[in-house]
Amino acid sequence: MFFYLSYPNYEVEVSLSSRIASLLARSVSVAQKLTLQLIDIFDNNQIELLPSFLDNLFAQVPFQWYTHTSGYEAFYCTIFYIFLTSTGFNVFAEDTSSRGNIDLTVLYHDTAYIFEFKVNRGKPIEQIFAKQYYKKYLHMSNIIAIGIVVDSSSESVKQFEIQRIR
Questions:
Q1: End-to-end CA distance of the chain
Q2: Which of 61, 111, 148, 166 has its C-alpha lying 20 to 30 A from 139's C-alpha?
Q3: Is residue 28 part of a domain?
Q4: Can you give the pTM of this predicted structure?
């Protein structure tokens, strides 16, 4: 049996995500620093800085949480999703398109950032193009595809690729 968690309104979603984010980071000051870093990355369009941000974010997760979950891309997507929503970004997890589900989509200003995660191996950028996930966002001024491969043994970004579609 599966349950779907929804929120009664946007404020509750952001508040709950912020609380979970601070618990993940084990202190409010670390969570605040990470949140400010993430905002700066998107504000300054410095997406190439995401691997070090994600490595830092994944390092905040308690070891016990990795025990049975680190082999699943959903684990890493969820951690990133929580931080994105806690900052108030417009984020869609398992964003449904006509050809499949995008792991994460962030809409920021007039840019669609399409994220595809893989664990240990895979070609996430190729999946974005093969399934033409970007077509859903052709109305946006900018579309950026981001492929991330996470190494589950080191809990760090193993491969990171960015391709501007538009």
A1: 41
A2: 148
A3: yes
A4: 0.78
